[in-house]
Amino acid sequence: MKFHHPNKKSASFDLTPLIDIVFQLLIFFMVTTTFVNLENRVKINLPSGDFAAVEPSKNITVTITEDNTIYLNGKLIDPLKITESIATELKKEPEKIVVLEADKNVLHGKVISVMDLLKKGGADKIAIATQPTKKK
Fold first, then answer.
1. HSE-up (13 A, CA, CB side) for residue 32
2. CA-CA distance, 46 to 128, in Å (whole number)?
3. Higher per-residue confidence, 116 vs 55
4. Which positions ≥6 away from 90 have C-beta within 8 Å?
5. What's the domain of life for this entry (predicted)?
6. 69 vs 2: CA distance, rounded Å
7. Which whole number is the average pLDDT over 69-85?
8. Per-residue exposure over 38-64, b if at least 16 CB sit within 10 Å of its own CB, e if not
9. Alpha-carbon span 32 to 22, nearest angstrom
10. How many CB atoms lie within 10 A of CB 99?
11. Whole-model pTM?
């Protein structure tokens, strides 16, 4: 049996303030992301060394991150396409040096296999990037 109480109000929610807040958050994040300066570089932890560095902006950069992801000039690349991509880049400017940036936690075998793929693509000049040794 169903009883009806005339003084009982039904519960309802007004979603208008919630929708306003969500739209304001959306606008806030859209506006703030336009001011973020995104670098074209991949963040890695390079090993340290004392030998001379090359200018990365004037060369072809191949980066291997700690999780073995490979980037060519800051753009994610399929490991199976490295050889043809390097060959294409070197056809444009054959005097460029290929700079290999590998995180210091990447296994040596992975670095060697990427170097082999670069050599197959025609890279005769391969430089290995390091960060300067900190003086004590």
1. 6
2. 10
3. 116
4. 60, 96, 98, 121, 122, 123
5. Bacteria
6. 65
7. 88
8. eeeebebeeeeeeeeeeebeebbbbbb
9. 15
10. 21
11. 0.60
Angstrom CA distances, 130 to 26, 51, 66, stand at 41, 8, 15
Q: Determine the angle formed by the axes of helices 108-120 and 82-92, rounding to 10 degrees.
A: 50
Q: Which of 63, 62, 58 is nearest to 96 (CA)?
A: 58
Q: For the chain, which domains are there?
A: 48-132 (3.30.420.270)
Q: Which of 21-25, 49-53, 84-88, 127-131 has the lowest mean pLDDT?
A: 49-53
Place of tokens 């990037």: 129
Amino acid identity of 61?
T
Residues 11, 9: Cα–Cα separation, whole Å: 6
